[in-house]
Automatic annotation (TrEMBL):
Keyword annotations of the record: Hydrolase
Group of enzyme by EC: hydrolase
Catalyzed reactions per annotation: an acyl phosphate + H2O = a carboxylate + phosphate + H(+)
Family as reported in the entry's similarity comment: Belongs to the acylphosphatase family.
Residue ranges that the Swiss-Prot or TrEMBL entry lists as coiled coil: none
Entry EC number(s): 3.6.1.7
Full protein name: Acylphosphatase
The keyword Hydrolase belongs to this UniProt entry's keyword annotation: yes
Top-rank taxon, per record: Bacteria
Pfam families per record: Acylphosphatase
Catalytic site: 18, 36
Length: 89
């Protein structure tokens, strides 16, 4: 299993981004969390097999139609063994 941490910049809060991410994660079997950060970005910790994570990052990077994404940072991170995908904050 692998893990990545994403930080999504732009107009991404208040547009359904967390629920959009949640639906994709559940469809692909990705575990972790999505949350709104205080700086106006969305942060995502995602865990899963390599192909599922690649597809997840690709879809999340597009965002919902109401979002305006200006930048996506995606970095490998430590696998923590999440059992589900949750929305926090």
């Amino acid at each position: 299993m692998e893990a990545v941490f994403l930080k999504i910049y732009g107009h991404v809060q208040g547009v359904g981004f967390r629920y959009f991410t949640y639906r994709i994660a559940h469809r692909l079997g990705v575990k972790g969390y999505v949350r709104n950060a205080e700086d106006g970005t969305v942060e995502i910790h995602a865990e899963g097999d390599k192909s599922s994570l690649e597809q997840f990052v690709k879809e999340v990077s597009r965002g919902p139609s109401s979002a305006i994404i200006t930048k996506v940072e995606c970095n490998p991170t430590t696998y923590q063994g999440f059992e589900d995908f949750t929305i926090t904050r």
